[in-house]
From TrEMBL, chains A, B:
Pfam families: LacI (PF00356), Peripla_BP_3 (PF13377). Gene3D superfamilies: 3.40.50.2300, lambda repressor-like DNA-binding domains. One of its GO terms (molecular function) is DNA binding. Residues 5-59 form the HTH lacI-type domain. InterPro entries: HTH_LacI, LacI/GalR-like_sensor, Lambda_DNA-bd_dom_sf, Peripla_BP_I. SUPFAM superfamilies: lambda repressor-like DNA-binding domains (SSF47413), Periplasmic binding protein-like I (SSF53822). This is LacI family DNA-binding transcriptional regulator. Residues 303-330 form a coiled coil. CDD domains: HTH_LacI (cd01392), PBP1_LacI_sugar_binding-like (cd06267). Keywords: Coiled coil, DNA-binding, Transcription, Transcription regulation.
Length: 340, 340
DNA sequence: CTGAAAGCGCTTACAG
DNA sequence: CTGAAAGCGCTTACAG
């Protein structure tokens, strides 16, 4: 049990000053070659590695990125983390991840905790509750302290900062248009409650596609699901009562539930009912039938978000040019068996 | 853009010493009430929060746990993280997550990086490559430095430390036994390559169940899949040539592929072919038919691992009693449509 | 009751 | 060429 070795110990052992050791290890030409090599050899032998915490304190930067997401057991979010991790590591950053569990309080707590010196900047996606409340003071505060924030996916217009999103409205439009192109006339929308920003935008896209094609908009064909566990009944009713021939679901969990319900009441997917889902995840790929989806590349989102954050962190701190950008990641339709 | 306020600034502003401020904020009775309240009010007004990094340096502990896992886009691992996060947060710890991508080098790099002061202890699951090489020097080193390590799921006997696992062999045994109980006679095993510790154990359980029931063990019925993308052909052959009536798959991805392949060649699951998978994830729940699985609770594993680590961290450092424990998390069979 | 000093582990401008 | 000093932000034993 040898504790990690420090500069001080090396200095003592070699009978030189701490400064000399430090400089030798950083290969400063200030130090005579003989001493330098001696110190380096000794340090190498004892596996000396500078203490990150001490460096952070000294440099006033930690080289770590804080990530706050609602939920990790979610293919999309894991994917984004992967993307962030990639470019973070390439640039010598590590990441520290906190989960808000879609709770406002946890989001605030986590941000405060990380903001106290543990990280250099945030990458985050808002919790449902935060979006519902519209209370973003914790984020403003962090930004005011000079800590950059990049938001992705679930963002808000109320905060000025870098963002990376997909064009939810347009992507939804395209998806619905593809259904119309295939001759579907009565298209339902299964979505989330309105305060989730992306849910709202996808609804807009859905509506616009219908209207642009002269299809009457029918409120009854929109179902807003609050809780996935109780949705089957609502969905069953929709399918039985409304004689629809297609559904656009705002995520793949809804989509797979729709398919299963349809099967139960004797509807064939895709013949009787076409199904498209937002978010290309693992379920869509392995469901039977496989599900046509709008793919939003989490990896790309993560890459981009990390790039934006690191760029800001390393840009000479000329804090004045706060020209925040919003990057839009491209989506595309992945055609599978649930449409034809 | 007001940078975060420090003790020093408060001291200056209030014209007292830094010590006085520090003590006041920690509510030390050493300080006169008047001063104490004045300082506290001021600090509150400016949202003073102590700098974590400084505290870490001072206390020589960071109150953060390092997690190293092979892959985050994996329901089981995300689930474990969730479990770790829960009890970590309850105990005032945060977590920092690094991914090894199943690569030995990344695992080593990440561990070295975190070991340099950033965290107090590790919770980890070995990368495939590490298991393949059998090289664990990076872990030994960390432990020798006095940093506790808890391993979960993919562990090794070559390292002495706390571990939390499931009884892979027994769970596999049970699963196969349940197939036998349902009258299945010719049961195949679809597994991973042998160096993945859990793969090996599950194979052992499978074999034992067969032998215990007087069913001849047939090497040809065991398929080892290296790469999920090319497995369909191998699986197809198994199903067509071997006339099996049940399959035990070592994970749900294999299981769902088996089911899809079976469907293609006209086999009905579960009538012609029963399927059981290890690891209860999201696919099993939403596949058609839904898949009977051995559930290993990632949440519980994470909870337990975090508890063990924190306990060790906070146990008075009486480092001598290194009585390492291995906790076994219970599994159970979740019966669904793929068996009957 | 208040403050100066030492220290956590490091770096770097400044003396010598 | 080497080292003492100051400092990052904090805490705490010790003086006064």
């Amino acid at each position: 049990m040898k504790r990690k070795i420090t500069l001080k110990q090396i200095a003592k052992e070699l009978d030189v000053s701490i400064s000399t050791v430090s400089k030798s290890l950083r290969n400063s030409l200030e130090i005579g070659e003989e001493t330098r090599l001696k110190v380096q050899a000794f340090a190498k032998f004892y596996h000396y590695k500078p203490n990150n915490i001490a460096l952070s304190l000294k440099n006033r930067k930690t080289k770590t990125i804080g990530i706050i997401i609602p939920e990790i057991v979610h293919h999309f979010f894991s994917t984004v983390i992967n993307g962030i991790e990639q470019v973070a590591n390439e640039n010598g950053y590590s990441v520290i991840i906190c989960l808000s569990d879609d709770s406002f309080d946890k989001e605030v707590l986590n941000m405060e905790m990380l903001a106290n010196g543990s990280i250099d900047g945030f990458i985050m996606s808002l919790s449902k509750e935060t979006q519902f409340r519209g209370d973003f003071h914790h984020i403003t505060e962090v930004i005011n302290q000079g800590m950059p924030v990049v938001m992705f996916d679930r963002v808000t217009n109320d905060i000025l900062c870098d963002k990376v999103i997909i064009d939810d409205k347009y992507a939804a439009y395209e998806a619905v248009q593809s259904l119309i192109d295939k001759g579907r006339k009565k298209i339902a929308l299964v979505t989330t409650v309105d305060y989730v920003s992306v849910g709202k935008l996808r609804t807009d896209g859905y509506t616009k596609a219908l209207l642009d094609n002269g299809i009457p908009f029918n409120e009854d064909l929109i179902i807003k699901i609050e809780d996935i566990d109780t949705c089957e009944i609502t969905i069953g009713k929709l399918l039985e009562d409304k004689a629809i021939d297609a559904v656009f679901a705002v995520n793949e969990l809804f989509a797979v539930t729709i398919i299963k319900t349809a099967n139960k009441i004797g509807l064939n997917v895709p013949n009787d009912l076409a199904v498209i889902a937002f978010t290309d995840g693992i379920i869509s790929k392995y469901s039977t039938p496989t599900i046509t989806t709008v793919s939003q590349s989490g990896i790309k989102m993560g890459n981009k978000a990390a790039k934006m954050l690191i760029e800001r962190l390393e840009s000479e701190e000329d804090e004045e040019d706060e020209n925040y950008k919003t990057e839009v990641i491209e989506t595309h339709l992945i055609e599978r068996e649930s449409t034809n």
